[in-house]
Amino acid sequence: MREFLSRRRDFLAGGLMMLLGLTAATAGAGYNIGTLQRMGPGFFPLALGVILTLLGVLIAGAGAAVGAEAEDSLPAEAHWRGWSCVIAGPLLFVLFAHYGGLLPATFACVFVSALGDRTARLRSSLVLAAGVTLLGAILFHLLLGVPLPLWTWGLS
After folding, report:
1. 54, 86 Cβ separation under 8 angstroms
2. Per-residue pLDDT for 1 more than 80?
3. H or E segment at 133?
């Protein structure tokens, strides 16, 4: 039974989501949670952690319930390009947000992450990155007032 479950992609993904969710919920609970009207710094990580844990339980349960006829093993070969692009995207966001601001950070993150898809083309990745950057600037800078400058140059 253990070997059967270890080969299930959904079961493994759900377990990872549960682990990340429990970690976030535990970390968030260590801060002041506050109330719904005056949320403290621990409210958001706790809420997201609980939601992620519940989703992980649902995904793992669905993966464990699938019969043997629907065998879905992990890929035989690693997709290094996709993995590296998806990991590099958030790292570039952090780097560019510090040195360049919200616009270059969002563009770099989405563009590089989109290139991780095997079917992605340069033009479609550029269009996607430009669209998400525009919507992100409108949402986070104009509507929500996030204190990250749109554009800076050098150390902030």
Report:
1. no
2. no
3. helix 122-136
Asked if residue 104 lies in contact with residue 96, where contact means CB atoms within 8 angstroms, the answer is yes
What Rg, from alpha-carbon coordinates, does the chain have?
A: 19
Range of the domain at 54: 2-70
Whether residue 150 lies inside any domain: the answer is no
3-class SS of residue 97: helix
- Averaged over 92-103, what is the pLDDT? 92
> Is residue 151 in a domain?
no
Give the end of a domain, one of 12, 45, 70: 70
**Tally of structural domains, the chain:** 2
Q: What pLDDT is recorded for position 153? A: 78
User: Hey, what are 114's tokens?
Assistant: 């989109």
* Phi, psi for residue 68 in degrees, rounded to 5: -70, -20
Residues 53 and 7 placed together within one structural domain of the fold: yes
